[in-house]
Amino acid sequence: MSKLFxxxxxxxxxxxxxxxxxxxxxxxxxxxxxxxxxxxxxxxxGFIKFSNESEAEAAIEAMxxxxxxxxxIRVDKAANSAGPRNGGSYNRGGGGGDRSGSGWGNQQSxxxxxxxxx
Length: 118
Known about the structure:
single chain; alpha+beta; Alpha-Beta Plaits; 5-stranded antiparallel beta sheet; 3 helices; RNA-binding
């Protein structure tokens, strides 16, 4: 199975129209337009899962930088996302005595003590 990223989609593109526009390149297991969870409107990109690699490559070759549904789209292999893109950690450092949950460590208390504040 091979997953493609489709960027630059028109706001009116649906899962069905995305599927229909790419099915000529092979068997599609899933076609999804990503939507905003609050408004349920398209975010302008989506994903297509092809059943095999050669079909996905054919879709990239044929559809990348082409007009689809009234917009120029970008088609590329989707990144494997198994978590946060910053290496797996949301913590920005620190620790020590920081209990604020901000992940910035003792920077504020260090600033205060270096300025003579207590």
